[in-house]
Amino acid sequence: MRRTFTIILLSSLIVVSGCSAKDEASKTQAETEKNSESSNSANNERANEIKAPDFKLATLDGNDFYLSDFSGKVVMLNFWGTWCPPCRKEIPDLVNLQKKYNNDGLEIVGITLNSGSAADIQKFVDDKKINYTVLTNIEGSETEQVTFLYGQAIGQQISSIPTTLIIDREGYIVKGYLGPRSEEVFYNDLKEYL
Question: What is the pTM of this model?
Fold first, then answer.
């Protein structure tokens, strides 16, 4: 049975550490995720779910990237920055997930925010041995536009990073996280979609 992705703010929340995408300072952020059962109706099975918006950004080597290029794959869309300590903390877990489950259809896509030039980001990627797709701006502020677009889609501004969304093979956002997570936590939520 499919689950509907709904983000709501709960009063009794698990507090996680993240970085503000605006001021690059560490802060705590409440977890704003919850899954609920979707309708059993065949005609409206996915009517209440959120379709991931397509977007265009640049790869670090300057090629155009569209989310729709990974249609039919399970995508972990990770909003992050090279300057963000919690983002750095989860990189080894993302690298392991990409290595272990890429052949099963997993694609991890990192959208860098406020991280400098493509050359600076590439140096960071090389130093950290990042093995998944990393995206940056085309001309100036496209990553911020995509962040805003996804905030609109999920009904919750993406103001802290890392923020990660799982997108299923049909292009629906099925899970979201604010703050870093371990490989085990990500895999437990990913495995039903792989």
Answer: 0.80
